[in-house]
């Protein structure tokens, strides 16, 4: 940085010299009139002074001269000197952008391994609070036991988490995207506006005060421990912000509909648990001489010598039984409120249970419908198909064929769904997934096999292979799915076929799953392509790649992926030259045969119609006699050596 008192003088000197240089340059170029006379010596002195001043500015402050400064005697020195002022201004503007560095004491929850472990520990502690704290408030008296010690440990964990919240960065949405807020003041302000009061309330150790001070008044204040249930708000926040669930979902393939069903089952159990604890609290909230809902159960158990009110477990089972049949709208009616407090609490339970049950039923119904959405669409399609065939009065045999085709064609929608998922992936993931899913048939095409070997070699050398894999992804996106019923034929040229389902007859051979033919589809001259007639022995599904689509990919990727263009061109040249030579050889051989027949006094047609021994020459072989018809039925993509 330059001293403040030195900057104005420097700026004035640089401005005056830049004006002088501008006038001189305009005079030399003939674009403008100079302001005043300037000789060549004065121009050179101005340039020298500007160079010295620039060196002086660069060397000011604690930093050493920049390695990008021009070296004397270089050709680019004059260009840098002419644009030096503009360069300096741009650098000054760039340095005004403030970048906040994360202090060492701020915790990044996304990258810290200890923070992830701490989130798991806090999740277990919150689960303890959600299950045990309501039972302690409703049924248990404070005493020194295992649950009391475990509760103190949980309180200590929450106190540590309370302190860590002041030093944990949080994501913040800005015009430039989502960034981590690492400023201590902002973190503290946000925490004080959100969960500070809740955490302070849940850290008050009422049980410890009651046990250590032996004050009986605290027994009447046990209801204050319901504040502990506010910790459940932190449970919801941690489930939203932590990466625990994402870390579990990444390595395991989990059906999300089943996860949602299990989640709502646990929600139902938690609601019943909390309502049961709230219903049990009413027993200790009224005097013993008031009638209570437990009286009838206690009278029934007394006949067997059981005192129900002395067993927290029996009280909890009775309360859970009442809340479970209330929330599911069964309503046996053997347990009912007996006093005004119980009636009020029961009204709250009924309203809460009704809303919760309606929400759970609606969500579960939606999830089950989503799980069978493909089946519903298929049944709707079959309904419209049957109605159409009945209205058109199609023959029964044709109806059976059409219906059988649609029954076997259900997997076509899966291909469309996979293509949609592929488009939603990032380009790099699309490339990697495309290479892995199409590896089987890619290796059966000669130039694709060479291209995959090239990618593997570049990967072993440590080179960047993303553009090559992206080219494979583009080819995979050009694939089209076609389905053919049994006994149908297909013989398009300039199309590469990949059999994905069924059996097909290809001229004189049978093709199964993964069969590839039409490798010479890249040839532009259709006369050099050997057509292959396909016959569907069963219902078949084909993936097809048209030459036009493939060539568009090659042309689009010609700069970033020239290797595939080179391999395809080499293949086309080799196959076209070889097949062109063979075609010319066949033409000349047939011409020679016809000429020999003409010299013997027989027409070529007579020779073909009445084959026999021709004097002076050997009879042609059967393969030569059928060159015009059977020679085109050789195996596709095979190059004779």
Automatic annotation (TrEMBL):
One of its GO terms (molecular function) is voltage-gated potassium channel activity. It is found in: Membrane. Residues 514-554 form the Cyclic nucleotide-binding domain. Pfam families: Ion_trans. InterPro entries: cNMP-bd_dom (IPR000595), cNMP-bd_dom_sf (IPR018490), Ion_trans_dom (IPR005821), K_chnl_volt-dep_EAG/ELK/ERG (IPR003938), KCNH_animal-type (IPR050818). The keyword Transmembrane applies. The chain crosses the membrane at residues 117-140, 146-167, 264-286, 313-332, 344-362. One of its GO terms (cellular component) is plasma membrane. It is a multi-pass membrane protein. GO terms for biological process: regulation of membrane potential. Keywords: Ion channel, Ion transport, Membrane, Potassium, Potassium channel, Potassium transport, Transmembrane, Transmembrane helix, Transport, Voltage-gated channel. This is KCNH6 protein. It comes from Symbiodinium pilosum.
